[in-house]
Amino acid sequence: MDTYSYAQSQALFDRAVKVIPCGVPGHMSPAVNIPPSAYPIYAARSEGALFWDVDGNEFIDYMCGYGPMILGYRNPVVDGAARRQADEADLTMCASPKMVELAETLVDMVDAMDWAFFAKNGGDVTNYAAMVARSATGRKKMVAIKGGYHGVAPWMQALGHHGILEEDHTHTLRIPWNDVAAFEQVIAEHPGNVAGFIATPYHVPTFYDNELPDPGYWKQIEAICRKEGIVLIVDDIRHGFRLNMKGSHVHYGFTPDLVCYCKALANGYPISALMGTEAMKNEAAKVFYTGSYWYQAVPMAAALACLEELKRLDAPAWMLKQGSDLFGKMETMAAGYGFHLKVTGEPSMPNVRLTDDPSGMLHQAWCAECTKRGAFFASHHNWFISTAHDDEVLARTLAICDEAFQVIKEAAEKGRLAS
Ligand SMILES: Cc1ncc(COP(=O)(O)O)c(C=O)c1O
Description:
Layout: H1 7-19, E1 43-47, E2 50-53, E3 58-61, H2 76-88, H3 97-109, E4 115-119, H4 122-137, E5 141-145, E6 172-175, H5 180-189, E7 194-199, H6 217-228, E8 231-235, H7 248-252, E9 258-261, E10 272-276, H8 278-286, H9 297-312, H10 315-336, E11 341-344, E12 351-354, H11 361-371, E13 375-376, H12 391-413
Helix pairs in contact: 2-9, 3-9, 4-8, 5-6, 10-12, 11-12
């Protein structure tokens, strides 16, 4: 198999760095994929589970655009609904009836949630959730998990990031995942002043293995929140619709007060949602929160079509099955080459890591060799499965993995891992 080269991507990037800070800022920066020379920078086209870069290289996307793609790129059902809505109206001077329809659909679908509020990005609604929790309780502190990510607002970004002040974190308290005692301790240290607890359904720290909730963890957190009057917020922005259409809280058997959705809600059209219980509705109404494009009807029409299609396909169950099949075979294949591939999290959204080399270089080399052959694997972040990852796509992926294992095995034996 020939490996890819990226001359056109590089030429565009050389132009970009002159006019855009970092060239490609944020999570799609080439700096996050190591070695950068193994990865494309600009995409030109997409279809199903695939995208093509500006050099014409074809990739099976195991990042799904970092999560939003769940039904395959350019899904005809979703894109058709979006086009029909665009022919009628998108942003006008009034809200769209689609907003009512979408809120009703979500309320019918998501367990225990009685209302929905729409914005654009995930961070819009995690921030709103914290404001609602503070308004509802009259308290200041937000408890979050160490290594948990909820967006780019200063109180959510890690301390030490440029532009973030210590004051921004005065009211953010971080505790370890799966540590109920730490939650109790932090409440005792700030009596009557904890407004909310926010966490993802399971822990997905960048660069580390994913961690599922311990048995009983969420139920215990819920019980403490109820006893102490703390608002329980699930950040389902990444996991949402990849575990259970009724909410990841149903998958893990507990009831939150607020749930945040974004990534896969509209298969790539820009929309996010905060959902909440009846008790939170008036509190949400009190908080002023809005944005220039939050009332666009096209993403709402896309979301309606996306949810309908996900339900029709029983998508979470299907993605969990495809993921179990693929990652099980990948683990066995790795073992055949004498490597240990560790798969953590749930199979529709797992973290995958070769553990044989503590420096991480072996894992980076394998991901790079796979990517250069057409299976886009990030080495620092969990991967995503979509309904477009069908059996044929999985078989092609495994053939690429096999060749990449041979390459890194030979390189490791010759002591030449870094490329
Ligand atoms: C769990 C989680 N919460 C919040 C966010 C923030 O979403 P956005 O980047 O759309 O603001 C992300 C984004 O990756 C996320 O994964």
